[in-house]
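QUALITY CONTROL LOG
STEP: pairwise intake check
CHECKER ROLE: data steward
CRITERIA: each record must contain a sequence immediately followed by its structure tokens, with no blank fields

ENTRY 1 OF 2
RESULT FIELD BELOW
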Amino acid sequence: MPTMNRSSFVLLFVLMSLCSGSFAAGKKEKSSAPVTPVSQPGIYAGYSEPVYKGFTYHSYYVPMRDSILLAVDVFLPKKLEAGKRIPAILYLDRYVRSVEAKSPFNLIKDPILTLVSDKEVGFFTSYGYAIVVVDVRGTGASQGRRRMEFSPEEVLDGRDIVDWIIAQAWSDKSVGTTGISYLGTTAEMLLANQHPAVKACIPRSSIFDLYNDLAFPGGVCQGPFIDIWGYTTRALDDNNFSVFGKRAKLARGVHPVQSDRHRAIYNQVVAEHKKNFNVAKGVDGLSYRDEPDPLVNASLNDFSVHTRLSQVEGSHTPIYRIGGWYDGGLAKGALDGALNTSNTRKVLIGPWDHGPHDNVSPFSATKKVEFNVHLEMLRFFDHYLKGIKNGIEGEPEYSYYSVGEESWKTSNTWPPKNERAVKMYFSANKEMVSTASKSQGGLLSYAVDYSATTGLTSRWNSVTDLYRHGHTNYSDRRKEDEKLLSFTSDKIGANLNIAGNPVIHLNFTADAGDATVFCYIEDIAPDSSVTYVTEGMFRPVQRKLSDEVYKTPYPNHTYKKEDALPYKSGEQVSLTFDIQPIAYQFKKDHCIRISIAGADAGHFNLPKDKPTHFQINTADNTSFIELPVVE
């Protein structure tokens, strides 16, 4: 979950803007000739054009049903006509809605926007939308104390905020909601209130299943991320921005509400937030999705969107889910969320990491995200909030980027209808074959190398700001593969496309009472370079299969404590688990490789009882992978 951009605190705001909203967003048609309407993913013209330049800023304290006051920033189009009513886009922010610069810099830039950027605010206000950004309960300048993330109280606060928005003189009583990561998740959580004024929702890089998509993918604890996220949010709750580096010295602190002239409320909430719970300490020691966190007496299920599916679907609010193939484990959540909510109208998955921040395709000439995500969001909001008939409702539900092929695809279903599972069998000679009869049975031993890693610029590093170490990128993995157990196919005779969740099946043994198993799909070029494609991970105690949690296109597990199957050292078991979804094209004369590891150093916690060796049994074709091949 990203925290505020560190560059937000830089004095370069002087160069960016002399005051809030001092730039025009979007591009107007220069020609006076009639514009032929165009609307398709990433392209939008002739339906809606920017009419405002800049925005105004106001902040308020809004009382909740229990008298708790939430800090709210409102940005309106500059020179909005008197009496004109416009729709609002709501952001429910855990990461501080805005920051106050120290004097004299606050005379140049006030407020300093954080995760909801000047660019985003300026874009939507230029098209005639109000932007409303809220410090959720117990954060920023809002009252209250946090006892957990995504608490029931926080969700209900969203309804009170919407009531306040539609009562404003500028409101046309239509509200959309969006945000990235935590804010994307609160956007979808808002739908559980089933407020009739909320008419569109765009969760971006959001968390559908907090356990399986973020904290414990495959049951394996993403401990380093949890520690850094907890450290960052703890600092924000302490009104301490020093964690963001030297440039944060320009920040005085959380931006106060304008009416709180003597900072009486501000000083009270800053002191109160120091008592917020520490999420990192709470999660430490947990293993299962239904296991209560002793600090808050709630499990990760209680924090998660997927447990509110009936309420979210019952809102009937149209949803557009946006994510990236390299966005931690969140693309999986976007696709699972769509499968389980009939009100999901659109899904967009690009070659991106969290945010998106980078184009991660190894075949792209640039890391820049060239797809105009804001314009795509505008198409959706224009249709559902302003009633503009731009054709978006008639498009295929899924738009996704095929990496390697470097092109966009569409489908009305997920997985695509022309997909079929193709089995490739592991062989005792470390080959991978497509015909069962050609596989050699045998027992392969692997000495677990605990230095194995996907590096400091992996998909997992992109998910929160202080965990990021440069652009998300996977370098040539041939040296790293020397630490792993690998199975490699022959050269493929024609281009091969996959789209969806690969599924791994392992006849597995470890010489300890626990283990973490990592599986990487890789692309081997004729020059022997190794390109990362995707990955999955799993903990053998979670091996019981079940479809009772929610619908998935892959074999699933409950990850509940009651369904755990203890593992005994030397026990041979069958492991079946999904790999993070991807759309990818393997080129002719390339090889496909599956590499197995027992660790991803720097990203995932290890079990207390660590094995020294794995054994993979290839006898009777019991170890193989199913690739979601698109014909």
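ENTRY 2 OF 2
RESULT FIELD BELOW
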Amino acid sequence: MASDTHSASPPDYLHASKGIWSWLSTLDHKRIGIMYLFTTLGFFLIGGFFAILIRIEHLTPTKTIMEANMYNTVFTLHGAIMVFMFIIPNVPASFGNFLLPIMIGAKDVAFPRLNLISYYVLWAGAALAITSIVVGGVDTGWTFYTPYSIRTGTAVTLMALGVFVMGFSSIFTGLNFIATVHKMRAPGMTFHKMPLFVWSTYATAIIQVVATPVIGITVALLVMERVFHIGFFDPKLGGDPILFQHFFWFYSHPAVYIMIVPGMGIISELVTAFSKKTIFGYKPVAYSSLAIAFASFIVWGHHMFVSGQSYLASMLFSVATIIIGVPTAIKIINWTVTMYKGHVSWKTPMLYAMSFIFMFSIGGLTGLFLIALSVDVHLHDTYFVVAHFHYVMMGGTVMAMLGGLHYWWPKMFGRMYPEKLAQFAATLVFIGFNTTFLPQFVLGFLGMPRRYYNYEPRYQPLHILSTVGSWIIASGLLLTFGYLLVSIWRGKKAPANPWGARGLEWTIPSPPPVENFIHDPVIFDPYPYGAEYDHKYPNLFPEEGSNV
């Protein structure tokens, strides 16, 4: 009897071993995912702090709290930290690590040691980047545009080396996920039975492996030019600065989809779970992730319409960018149809899902202005681009991340958070975000350039409104992280399936056992909602709010 009880209740991954070394040396994909989660969220808070400083500086048309050189440094650090240390690694490395093996019925990823190495490689690159802040800062903007990034006296070399090293972490993670999806699926788990989050993580891994070496080569050439004065990009040395732009955007536009495609996978999970309906058009949504991944490599030139490239090239890049909007539209339409006549439950994760759909749609539609050649000439390098970028990245990726964080938090830590407080925080974030960035569309139309330290007094009212909005966002996010951390120690014990959701992760206890599954997993159709599936899979899923 004692043996049976013990075998039925193996230790969960959080308590199987104790001590900091057990975490630092772990090969458990779940623990590595948690370490990635807290690391990237820490970088998010640092990058957000720099964003608040930028907005405070723009309260007045001239100096408010810092000089122009400091403003350039703060602006650069905000962008570099948010892009390279938070948005790119956050969802794939944290949620992907924790959930992908469970969702396909595996005990771990294909290469556990490589998985742990990738985490430390991220820290090694981040350490170089942080050192660049201490020894002189970087004032080039997060894009490191040449020839200024070659000639400036700031610590560009260290920051570039940091980006170079962090790229290996992204490549290692992508290779691991591709191998895991192809080789570690449980018997019966065909590609067409994989959850849509797995599809999106798989598509993202392809982009990581193919695109990331390009940014590595680019920053390596930049370092060589700064250190050895070899002429790649500087016209004084016989180089071409436009070549740098081609290299940089060939990576950085696919990198946009490294950021957003995993978020789309999260939204697919949330919409089905809180509509209690099977996803509408499973295969089109799944294949659209791959379509976005492949199309992302042929659109980089839309960042360079005013760079002097040929009219034919600009036209072709404009058409290609319109085409990539098709698989994105498929996802939004299918999510909307899935909710139609569904039993929608407005829990906190669903609030973030709706925020994502609303704000990402704005980001996508405003992108149409920027791919129209004649309009882009007016809007290029204005605050319109800033607003568009943030509606896609923060209104998209960050909202999806927050939705996924609230959805899988009970599974990760076995504790519930206060629902009413979470809904209030989600409302604050939504209101604050739109208050911050909607005025920036107007600023851009009125001609306010981005990255400027000073501005004309006529822009001040909109800047003040935008700054107040940033304070509202910060309040909502700090409240969110506060109650989530408190819930780890004081939250109510989470049931195995608090949402009544469908998926392999909801068939196991919260938090999961070390080896994920107590028994061999039963493989079922994707998103089996409704009476038909209840009859087909009796007693497979714990009832909403019940323990295994």
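INTAKE CHECK: passed for both entries
DESCRIPTIVE NOTE, ENTRY 2: The chain has one domain: 18-536.
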